[in-house]
Amino acid sequence: MAAVLSSPFLTSGPVCKEVEAQLNDYFGCKHSKLVNSWTNGAVAALLALDIGPGDEVIVPAMTFIATANVVELVGATPVFIDCDPETLLVTPELIKNAITKKTKAIIPVHMYGQMCDVESIKNSLPKDRKIYIIEDCAHTFEAKFNGDRPGKHSDIAIFSFYATKNVTCGEGGAIITNDKNIYERVIQSVLHGMSASAADRFKEGKYNHWGMEYLGTKANLPDLLACLLPEQIKSIDSKISIREEKAQFYFSKLKNTKLRFPQEKSNIIHSRHLFPIGVGMQKRDEILQILSSKNIGVTVNYRAVPTMNFYKNKYSIPNENIMNSFLWGEETISLPLFPDITFNEQDYIVKVLLDDLIPMIGN
Question: Which of 104, 152, 165, 246 is catalytic?
């Protein structure tokens, strides 16, 4: 950070380029672009793919609101689909049933740290037209499915480096792709549609003119934040076992209770970004209050997006159309899970659940 402050570039510059090369190496992809948030990166990606009014984008009902919001922001229409009742992930079958003549893209979301089967999704799509696959990888930087990291089978994969993520710079994200044409559009769409970045406009010690061929947004990440990423990327895989150990502690103590857990496939590496549990619809909010009163920080990840007032008022999607997402969204909470949580702290959380809360939960 001191080196960046002493350099001419606080905005996107040589540090960003170094981190992008590091991302290419980590994910085995051809192109990467750092962005200032998952959200702005996704807007830039949709603009780069020329997705807008009149287009439909298939989006899971069970996800964070940003996945749908970015579709709205470019003027396209989100088409909500339900999730699998066991894994809480979208499947090729669910996606296939939602495809129409207006479908331009799908955004499979890797939830909580477990990846969707993107290869099967890709193979299930119509062969006579192009439907883009944009992976939402906000929870799955270090995850794998069948040995593959995110980005291998999609057109674009987008990551978040928000403050709560396993790799973070406070605010930020990244877009990766193996398609050169998409990448060339992305590097312009993240900077207003300009044909040259700040660094490129002053190559060789002189000013160089830039142009604008199509609409973009402002989504570039500054070097001042990018410099926080390299050491985390280098060490992220070494923390997988630590996160897994913490998750297995919860499983071992709570597996024979009435709590519900998302089902996990056997052919994955889980990034353990969150540890969600289902506590039942009737008592969820009361349980949230009790846990908070006992100094246990818990969140809800997530309520179904179509139940949010904006989407409820605009699209009026019946709960029965997204029943799995709706039911999970009404009963889920996420327990504290991070590398530095101690087993004594987890023991305390488990004791509160077993002694005070699980007896409250009906069958």
Answer: 165
